[in-house]
């Protein structure tokens, strides 16, 4: 339960005013409930004429009697006076009306206490999703290389919903039931402390039995959520790989794989559901056993010569005791529901508690544009598994120059350029801009200097205008059109029925590869960064699309510092300097003609492409 209270303190604290209203309304509901049931005693006495005692009014200031004696006596006195003046039938009608009014007030307060909890439940759900989303955006790329996208989606949807349905739904119960139990228990003590002490001796046995049954639910719920993540991951993989699945006629294989996962999920979910379904009948049975035991014990007292309470009061006692059972049953349900939510919260916390090594310096230096150069000084980089990716990298990129990086796949080219915007931090050495270590700069300022054009264009399910204007506040239509013209994109955009307001679909699937790439170039043009990173921007295009994209890139590169990763050496022949990488090392460097003359690794790559 310690984990449960930590969650409540963390997420419910901003909604304190709603909690205060819930406590107040639940207290009023309990008070009205007790008083409405107390009217049962005089009603029974009138109906069955079982009380022939004569009552006289006792002043409230009379110290010869206890408060309980004065309260009971004066209440009976008022009823007997009403019977004498209005008659038994009229008195019974008045008591019935009073019972109805009390019940109306009780149910109104009960509804109000539940209604004020709704903003808490919905608010916590929103806050948790927003916190997760912000955390996902803030985490470094390295975190997501170790996690499946489907698993992250499952945590943000299924796990958050499970926390809301299991933990937040129990919050209303945890506020309401202790109040009801407190008031009902005080009433039971007030009526008969002997019977109440006997009841207390029986209740812990019920609680222990329910605890034993629900003990393993958290572990089983955690397994269910992990299997749900597997299911979501397979769905995400299927959607992303439909073309390959259909091309290889692998529908049956994928269906069988998915069936295995869903069958396992069904089996585990069934076990959890069976344990949950056991909560109500078990609590119902134990509650009935408790009532039966107390009824036997109380009946024995009443049948004795010195009964502490009369029959009508005992019935009132049993009504209150039965009322206290419902809150106790809710607690038993919570022992099943809360562990499920805690299991989901454990998975959510894996993301929320993930450390972000890419943190801003406590006192970052001001970055006033890009003035001179980018320098790599003795840079080494390894992933968390210890595998070395870059070793002893040293070079300088001067402002306004075009710097190309070539080499075989896996040589570390993309990792090297990812160090410049601090997608990763160096293991040792330093990357500097204008002589300042980028770790001493504010990350947002650093990335504000850099534009990116990737091999696989990253676009969003939005309009063409919003995709080009992405990341640029207040961009006008004129600015977007000008950027599109520079990127050779304006012509095909205007051929669309809705022009710049055309929605391009998920990841731009309504456009061709060349069109998507030209939009990503237009986005970089509009940002107008002094540093441009091109990660094999034309590698996956046909000849005509490559020509159009290359023209756009040439215009984009003409007035800024460019770092270009390329497989096609023909696209970087005019670079000011070419860096040749192999297995994480720089093996050659120079201009195209110089590298050809060296007759080394670069010439080998060039000759292979010529063939």
- The fourth-level CATH homologous superfamily of the largest domain is ABC transporter type 1, transmembrane domain
Structural class: alpha/beta
The CATH class of the largest domain is Mainly Alpha
- What's the Cα radius of gyration? 37 Å
Provide the CATH architecture of the largest domain: Up-down Bundle
Overall tally of domains: 2
Count the E strands. Answer: 10
Please estimate the helix content.
55-70%
Fold and architecture overview:
This protein is an alpha/beta fold and 611 residues long. The protein has 2 domains: 2-352, Up-down Bundle (ABC transporter transmembrane region fold); 373-610, Rossmann fold. Helices cover 63% and strands 10% of the residues. It has 22 helices and 10 strands. The two termini are 69 Å apart. The mean pLDDT is 79.
Topology, element by element:
Blueprint: H1 2-12, H2 16-38, H3 40-48, H4 67-86, H5 88-115, H6 118-138, H7 141-145, H8 149-191, H9 193-213, H10 217-240, H11 242-247, H12 251-303, H13 311-352, E1 373-382, E2 388-398, E3 402-407, H14 413-418, E4 428-433, E5 436-437, H15 443-447, E6 450-453, H16 464-468, H17 477-486, H18 490-494, H19 513-527, E7 531-535, H20 543-557, E8 561-565, E9 577-582, E10 585-590, H21 592-598, H22 601-610
Parallel strand pairs: 3-8, 3-9, 6-7, 7-8
Antiparallel strand pairs: 1-2, 1-4, 4-5, 9-10
Helix pairs in contact: 2-5, 2-8, 3-5, 3-13, 4-5, 6-8, 8-9, 8-10, 8-13, 9-12, 10-12, 10-13, 12-13, 17-19, 19-20
């Amino acid at each position: 339960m310690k984990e449960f209270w930590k969650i409540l303190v963390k997420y419910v604290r901003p909604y304190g005013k709603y909690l205060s209203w819930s406590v107040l309304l639940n207290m009023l509901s309990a008070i009205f409930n007790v008083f409405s049931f107390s009217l049962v005693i005089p009603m029974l006495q009138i109906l069955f004429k079982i009380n022939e005692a004569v009552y006289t009014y006792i002043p409230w200031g009379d110290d010869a009697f206890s408060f309980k004696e004065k309260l009971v006596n004066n209440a009976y006195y008022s009823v007997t006076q009403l019977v004498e003046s209005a008659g038994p039938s009229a008195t019974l009608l008045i008591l019935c009306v009073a019972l109805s009014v009390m019940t109306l007030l009780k149910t109104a307060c009960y509804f109000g206490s539940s209604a004020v909890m709704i903003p808490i439940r919905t608010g916590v759900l929103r806050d948790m999703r927003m916190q997760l989303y912000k955390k996902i955006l803030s985490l470094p790329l390295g975190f997501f290389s170790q996690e499946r996208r489907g698993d992250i989606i499952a945590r943000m949807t299924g796990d958050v919903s499970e926390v809301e349905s299991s933990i937040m739904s129990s919050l209303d119960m945890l506020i309401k039931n202790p109040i009801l139990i407190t008031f009902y228990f005080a009433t039971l003590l007030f009526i008969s402390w002997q019977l109440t002490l006997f009841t207390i001796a029986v209740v812990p046995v019920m609680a222990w039995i329910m605890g034993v049954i629900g003990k393993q639910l958290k572990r089983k719920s955690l397994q269910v959520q992990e299997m749900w993540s597997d299911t979501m991951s397979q769905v995400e993989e299927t959607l992303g790989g439909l073309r390959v699945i259909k091309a290889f006629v692998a529908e049956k294989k994928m269906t069988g794989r998915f069936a295995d996962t869903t069958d396992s999920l069904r089996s585990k979910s069934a076990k959890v559901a069976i344990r949950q379904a056991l909560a109500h009948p078990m609590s119902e049975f134990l509650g009935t056993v408790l009532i039966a035991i107390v009824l036997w014990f109380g009946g024995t007292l009443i049948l004795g010569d010195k009964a502490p309470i009369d029959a009508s009061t005992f019935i009132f006692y049993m009504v209150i005791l039965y009322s206290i059972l419902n809150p106790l049953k809710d607690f038993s349900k919570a022992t099943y529901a809360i562990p499920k939510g805690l299991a989901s919260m454990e998975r959510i916390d894996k993301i929320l508690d993930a450390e972000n090594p890419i943190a801003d310096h406590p006192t970052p230096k001001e970055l006033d544009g890009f003035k001179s150069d980018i320098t790599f000084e003795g840079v080494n980089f390894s992933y968390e598994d210890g595998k070395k990716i870059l070793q002893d990298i040293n070079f300088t990129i001067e402002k306004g120059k075009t710097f190309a990086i070539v080499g075989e796949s896996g040589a570390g080219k993309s990792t090297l350029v990812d160090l410049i915007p601090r997608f990763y931090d160096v293991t040792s050495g330093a990357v500097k801009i204008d002589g300042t270590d980028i770790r001493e700069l504010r990350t947002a300022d650093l990335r504000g200097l850099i534009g990116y054009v990737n091999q696989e264009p990253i676009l969003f399910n939005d309009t063409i205008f919003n995709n080009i204007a992405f990341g640029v506040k207040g961009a006008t239509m004129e600015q977007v059109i000008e950027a599109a013209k520079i990127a050779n994109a304006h012509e095909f955009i205007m051929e669309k029925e809705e022009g710049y307001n055309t929605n391009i679909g998920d990841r731009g699937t309504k456009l061709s590869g060349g069109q998507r790439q030209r939009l990503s170039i237009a986005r970089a043009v509009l940002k107008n960064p002094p540093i441009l990173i091109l990660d094999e921007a034309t590698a996956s295009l046909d000849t005509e699309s490559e020509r159009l994209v290359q023209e756009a890139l040439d215009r984009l590169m003409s007035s800024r510092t460019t770092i270009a990763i390329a497989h096609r050496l023909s696209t970087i022949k005019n670079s000011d300097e070419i860096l040749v990488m192999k297995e994480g090392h720089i093996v050659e460097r120079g201009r195209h003609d110089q590298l050809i003359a060296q007759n080394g690794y670069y010439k080998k790559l060039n000759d292979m492409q010529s063939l």
